[in-house]
Amino acid sequence: MRIILTMMVLFFSSPLFAQDALTVKGKVIDFTTGEPLPYATVMVVEQEIGVDTEEDGSFTLVLNSFPAQLDIEYMGYESASQMLEAKSDDLLFELIS
Fold first, then answer.
1. Distance in angstroms (rounded) separating the CA atoms of residues 54 and 10
2. pLDDT tens across 28-37, in order?
3. Model pTM score
4. Integer Cα distance of 74 and 89 in angstroms
5. H-state helical runs in the chain
6. What is the distance between the alpha carbons of residues 5 and 21, in angstroms, rounded to a whole number?
7. CA end-to-end span of the chain
8. What is the C-alpha to C-alpha distance for residues 3 and 10, in angstroms, rounded to an integer?
9. 3-25, pLDDT tens digit by residue?
């Protein structure tokens, strides 16, 4: 019984570990002022996923796979794009108005 319980815990928790490996975090700011850009759009077009940044310009995005191209858009600013090959917790996008 103990072995079955252990196997069930490992089986059901493995997606949580896998999800962490595909998570990217970052921040979108104004290039000139350094101010955060709230509600900027961060998307991965080929995976059909995306998020809006928080009020402090930060975002967390769970990807389906790597590599992935992130596209960032904010009204009144030039778009930015970056190809990601692996997980990152400190992406910084500086958009030019």
1. 33
2. 999 999 999 9
3. 0.78
4. 21
5. 2-21
6. 25
7. 62
8. 11
9. 554 444 444 444 444 456 799 99
